[in-house]
Amino acid sequence: MAKKQYAFYPGCSSQKGASASNYITSFGVMCEKLDIQLNEIPDWNCCGASIGYGEGGELPRMVLNARNLAIAEKDLPGQDIVSGCPACWLGLREAVDRLHEHDRLKTETNEALKEVNLTYKGGSKARHMTEVLIEDIGYAGIKAPVVKPLDGLKVAGYVGCQANRPYGIAGESFENPLYLDKMIEAVGAEAVPYEQKAACCGGALAFSEPEKAQAQIRQIVEAAYDNAADLIVTPCPLCQANVEIYQAEINKKHGTKLNMPVLYYSQLITVAYGGSVKEAGLNGQVIRAAKLDKIAGG
């Protein structure tokens, strides 16, 4: 079967040694089993993420993302641009939409891109990896390669905010998106009811206003415990990092005993497809998912 090919934008947090490197590790087995080939965009640059919405203005943010789009158009023509990070996807998707709608902004963006001998033509489509799985593979397709059904594993599907607004997945509710629950169920696990699935983890407030961010994180984790979840899964590197890492600090400040594993959906899928602890990147977790490690053979 011919592989489905996509221009892949990894994003900064997924680089070797970065906070989400285990996310990309788990993509390997998952994509191989689904006949997906991710072709990394050469010489890509940072999308600007949250800081891109600061005082630098709209044009610099557009140029940062348009450069990646233009390289993909030139070197990987005809391939949709796919990212695993909602912040990166948001930046790319916004640039596609804004530059399509506003000729002057597109002209100014291309004036800047002339400095690096690039032109953004506007033929790109920016997608999140979950869109590819749902729309191009389908839930039955996700289920098909499962060799280790995750029976008995209870999972809280935490979509977060940037993967949900302003774009989200076509046809899904912003208040109660169900696609992550369906992906969890496709690999044999139980998606528990979870009222915090579209809540914000606090994002960059974890640095500027830690008390506020940690209050939100505590709610996210405690809701998972309230619904008897064994672990939380998310499609967002920032959500994963915040919700996992700050549990220890919350425990220290408030005398709680939070110890909830927080993983990526791709790690769950990789284990169900027969991937090892290492192949799923489970050995990179701060809080180990003991039940999933056992299924993976770790």
Give the helix level as a range of percent.
40-55%
CATH architecture of the largest domain: 3-Layer(aba) Sandwich
Major β-sheet profile: 4 strands, parallel
Query: What class, by secondary structure content?
Result: alpha/beta
Q: Indicate the multimeric state.
A: single chain
Morphology: globular
Q: Which regions contain 5 or more consecutive residues with pLDDT less than 50?
A: none
Rg (C-alpha, Å): 19 Å
The N- to C-terminal Cα distance equals 32 Å
Number of helices: 13
**SSE series:** EHEHEHHEHHEHEHHEHHEHH
Short description:
This protein has 13 helices and eight strands. With 298 residues, the protein is an alpha/beta fold.
Kindly describe this structure.
The protein has 298 residues and is of the alpha/beta class. It has two domains: 4-129, Glutathione S-transferase Yfyf (Class Pi), Chain A, domain 2, CATH 1.20.1050.140; 147-296, 3-Layer(aba) Sandwich (Rossmann fold). The protein is built from 13 helices and eight strands. It has helices spanning 21-33, 58-75, 86-101, 103-113, 129-137, 139-143, 179-186, 205-208, 210-226, 237-245, 247-254, 265-272, 290-296; strands at residues 4-9, 36-40, 81-83, 126-128, 154-157, 190-191, 231-234, 262-264. Strands 2-1-3-4 form a four-stranded parallel beta sheet. A four-stranded parallel beta sheet has the order 6-5-7-8, sandwiched between helices. α1 (21-33) packs across α12 (265-272) and α3 (86-101) packs across α4. The protein is globular. The model has no long low-confidence stretch (mean pLDDT 93).
